[in-house]
Amino acid sequence: MECQPKIDVRHIGEEGHAVVVVDNFARYPERWRADALQADYQPLGDYYPGRRAHVHQAYFADVGPLLGTIFRNVFGCQEKMSVDRALYSVVSTPPERLSLVT
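The structure assignment produced for this chain is given below.
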C-alpha cells in the first residue's frame, strides 16, 4: 500500500528555525519493514551501541524526491543534493556496557 506523506513545517525558538516533521515518510513502508527484517546486522563503526545494516539502494528512489522537495521548498537549497547512505539500526548493547567516547 502506498502512503502519502504529510509534511508539517514548524518554526521553533526565538530565531524561528524551521523543523520539518514528516508523517508517512516512505511511500512503501511494508517494503522497507520486510527489508529490515531480512538484513544482515553487524557492528558498523565504534560509536553506535548496537548492530546496523545498510539500507537497500532502492530506498533512495523512494524517499529521495520527498527529501529534495523539503530541502528546496523549506530550506531554500538550490545545490545538487545526494544521500550517500542510510542504515537500519538496532540498539542491542546492554545499558551496563555503555560508556562515553573518550
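Interim note for the steering committee: The beta strands are 6-12, 17-23, 50-54, 87-91. The chain has a mean pLDDT of 90.
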